[in-house]
């Protein structure tokens, strides 16, 4: 049986809010209304990390697969796929499918695999449900066998209806570079409907914590840390990365699913070797490529690794200890963050693309991607968020803010 918390949250039949239930019903109506249209139709669920987008998609797809087996349904015998361009998240969905009567593991695919399969057999499909659509490739990627210009456009050509989840603040690589404006421009020729989710479900934190993170990773402003941060949430700032690691290990021993993660800025090369993050007494290797069917965060030994956006995006952790790497520094006014693109070490994620020829636009895109990564990593922790900053000035200011809030 599915017992892991991440599996439970992504499995269908969870307790949905009235708003979520209404949205699921509305999406089902959207599918049945447009399944016979001559032109593709797209439904976009837009919302920040932790707003329940994946939970809704999971329920939508389960009901869709039920309907395709019902002779009385207009969706009878339709061919439908659930797509996600994230190998770790795909493992979870396929494990869930193995436990459910209406779903098959082969229903869950990587976009490139399905696109190439459809092209090879000259076929299409009826409904595509796409989680994390902001991870779809928006340029060719021959290394991963995608030779088109844009994965979403290719999927639109193959499908009758697409239901997609999109969050421009979770765009993390230049080869998957999206903005809301770019998405709207691509979808302009097609019938479309948008729904914006706002309620935060993942983090058991006060709204002020969410607001603090949104400013930290948005306009880069450092808001005060207040006593309300500690209302039913374990928010801490550390002056020593090793002590933070020990606190995360303790939480992992108590409740599980607790990991140290980090932003870019440390040696990182996909060459099969180990590359270490070193901060004072703290020294751990980056996460290794996971060849198993078990998601990275669920492997016990990964408590001795540092997670990244590649292993943590889309997942719930109980506690997350985030190391803010060298590109993230304190601005001269001591009230804002400053991002130094020259200290980015994730070469693959920030590889230049041909359609970003303006150096200023490219630089802005890199800064945005670093801020997006911080936002994603900060919002992993359901029960707690621990912070350590490499930049000494930033660490001093954050520690002082945190210490003063504890005293109040």
From TrEMBL:
Residues 39-176 form the AAA+ ATPase domain. SUPFAM superfamilies: P-loop containing nucleoside triphosphate hydrolases. It holds the Pfam family SLFN-g3_helicase. This is AAA+ ATPase domain-containing protein.
């Amino acid at each position: 049986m599915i017992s892991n918390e991440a599996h439970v949250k992504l499995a269908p039949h969870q307790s949905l809010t009235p708003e979520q239930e209404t949205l699921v019903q509305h999406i089902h109506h959207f599918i049945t209304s447009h399944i016979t249209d001559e032109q593709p139709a797209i439904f976009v669920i837009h919302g920040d990390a932790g707003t329940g987008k994946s939970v809704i998609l999971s329920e939508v797809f389960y009901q869709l697969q039920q309907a395709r087996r019902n002779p009385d349904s207009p969706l009878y015998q339709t061919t439908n796929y659930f797509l996600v361009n994230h190998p770790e998240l795909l493992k979870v969905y396929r494990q869930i499918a193995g436990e459910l009567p209406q779903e098959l593991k082969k229903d869950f695919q990587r976009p490139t695999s399905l696109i190439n399969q459809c092209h090879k057999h000259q076929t299409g499909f009826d409904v595509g449900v796409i989680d994390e659509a902001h991870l779809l490739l928006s340029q060719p990627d021959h290394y991963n066998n995608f030779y088109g210009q844009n994965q979403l456009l290719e999927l639109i050509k193959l499908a009758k209806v697409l239901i997609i989840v999109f969050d421009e603040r979770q765009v993390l690589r230049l080869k998957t570079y999206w903005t809301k404006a770019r998405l709207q421009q691509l979808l302009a020729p097609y019938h479309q409907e948008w729904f914006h989710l706002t309620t935060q479900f993942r983090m058991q934190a006060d709204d002020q914590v969410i607001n603090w993170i949104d400013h930290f990773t948005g306009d880069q402003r450092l808001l005060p840390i207040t006593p309300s941060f500690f209302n039913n949430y374990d928010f801490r700032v550390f002056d020593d990365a090793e002590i933070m690691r020990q606190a995360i290990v303790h939480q992992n021993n108590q409740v599980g699913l607790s990991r140290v993660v980090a932003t870019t800025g440390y040696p990182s090369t996909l060459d099969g070797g180990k590359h270490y993050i070193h901060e004072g007494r703290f020294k751990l290797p980056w996460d290794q490529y996971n060849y198993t069917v078990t998601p990275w965060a669920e492997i016990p030994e990964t408590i001795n690794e540092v997670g990244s956006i590649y292993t943590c995006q889309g997942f719930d952790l109980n506690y997350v200890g985030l190391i803010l790497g060298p590109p993230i520094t304190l601005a001269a006014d001591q009230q804002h963050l400053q991002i130094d693109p020259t200290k980015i070490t994730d070469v693959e994620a920030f590889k230049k693309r041909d359609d970003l020829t303006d150096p200023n636009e490219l630089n802005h895109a890199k800064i945005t991607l670093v801020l997006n990564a911080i936002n994603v990593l900060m919002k992993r922790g359901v029960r707690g968020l621990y912070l350590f900053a490499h930049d000494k000035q930033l660490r001093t200011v954050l520690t002082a803010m945190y210490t003063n809030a504890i005293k109040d």
